[in-house]
Amino acid sequence: MWVIDVNRHNHQKKTRMGLRHWTSPDERLSTAGYRIADAANLLPDALLSAQPSRSVPALCHLVAGAALLLVASPVFSQTNQTQSEQGEYIARAAGCMSCHGEDLAGGYQVETPMGTIVASNISPSQEYGIGGYSRDDLARVLREGVSPDRRLYPAMPYASFRGMTDTDIDVLHIWLQDQEPVERAPDQRTDLPFPFNIRTGVMAWNWLYLGDRDLPQFGDPVLSRGAYLVDHLGHCGECHTPRNDLFGVQNDQYLAGEVIDGWLAPNLTSHPVSGLGAWAAQDIVDYLGKGTAGNIVQAAGPMGTFVQHGTSHLDEDDLFAIAAYLQTIPAIDTRSQDIPLLVPMAERDRPQHRFNQIREEMTQAQARDDLSEPERLFLDHCAACHGVSGQGQPQAFYPPLVQNAALRREDPRNLLTVLSHGVPAGKLYRMPAMPGFADELSDDQIAMLANYTRTTFGGRQDSTLTAADVGQARDQDDDMPATLRSLQVAAWVALIAGIALLVGGALLWWVLARRRGLRRQEGVKP
């Protein structure tokens, strides 16, 4: 049996059983069950043998049976508790709480070109959740996208969860059913236009795209574990792999990056410029475990949520396994980046912040009479937290801007989204809130601020963002692809034609029936 420490979001350690080298839950349950059954079987024998001539042996049997029950019951309880803890670990690794919330009540909204898909209640509520789900029901949901009462849209990553092991599904089901039920439905409901609101149509999507993906196999247990976490449990490819117009994953571009819900999910392949090739393994581990790496890259948006509720709870061995596997992904140059996102460790600046430094530097800067408008914007809205020279306040968890990855990225949408909407406090461990400026600054001013920080601190030679770029990033409107639009038009045409055919057929039947009736009436006249 292999015991590991799980790194919690609050940095407390909680001992769990490992997920690779551990005794099967079925074996432990079976062992405990046999002990309880054996003890229980002794009780009726003891009572039946409780005759005056054999009272002492009967009493011995009774005491022995009771003792075995006392010994066996804690073992069964401990085994069940351990399985529930393992189930929580699987839920974290699978990102369940990222969409369904810590209370599993659901409500997270995914904006797609087809409409809004809302995460459902997966608490053990009998009325609103999955309290009535058997273990096999859950397995079918995870592997086929089919619940007892409906089909699920592929926003639920069942295409990746198909690879989940039986053991992981077993313990996940135990944990889910062991949680507090939430007796309410999400405030919003999935709202898709016709014909996408007809869930039976998902069968066609499954026929086209739901299959066993040709993913690499490894003899190395660390790489195998990393592949399982990335490809299946963590379902990284669902967001980081380009999709076609029918929402199908393009497996030949696996982990090459995609735009999801208005955020750039970047290239995760090993390409040194477009992907993670310049990242050290420790960078990846820190990013997934803390939401920040080297004080120069921070998780935000949906990835920040996934780190907060998911990967920050994984043990270090699993995080290193993920890093090792990602570094083996074949490089794909998507030309989405012109300079490496992370500066190599040997070339990274180590900004230092001393007490009262920001106050002194701001006083000096504000006394200047030659400040440009971008400099003035930065002093008024950014320097108090990040410093006039961009050194940040690492001890207060305000990140440095010098060499910051958000400023080095060629695609500016994530930066512009953060500048517009901000980041709430507590999104990442100890991170303070980042205010958004959409209600305070114009789109021109936000673009000016982004251009200034990118060229001053991000190492970019130039930046020519405009108000139009800010508006596009802020509004995050995804137009329906032409293929889906054509499919929608064809469905409406078919529906109208079908209705017209039914009405026409009914009218024709009525006319013919009326004529036959008139003829019969004419035939019986005297």
Structure characterization notes:
This protein has 526 residues and is mostly helical. The protein contains 20 helices and eight strands. The longest helix has 42 residues, at 482-523. The N and C termini lie far apart (101 Å). A hairpin with a 2-residue loop joins β3 and β4 (115-118). The protein is globular. Residues 1-60 and 66-78 have low confidence and may be disordered.
Topology:
Blueprint: E1 3-7, E2 13-17, H1 25-48, H2 55-93, H3 96-100, E3 109-112, E4 115-118, H4 135-144, H5 158-161, H6 166-177, H7 202-209, H8 221-233, H9 237-240, E5 258-260, E6 263-265, H10 281-290, E7 292-293, E8 297-298, H11 301-309, H12 316-326, H13 357-366, H14 373-381, H15 383-386, H16 405-408, H17 413-421, H18 443-456, H19 467-475, H20 482-523
Antiparallel strand pairs: 1-2, 3-4, 5-6, 7-8
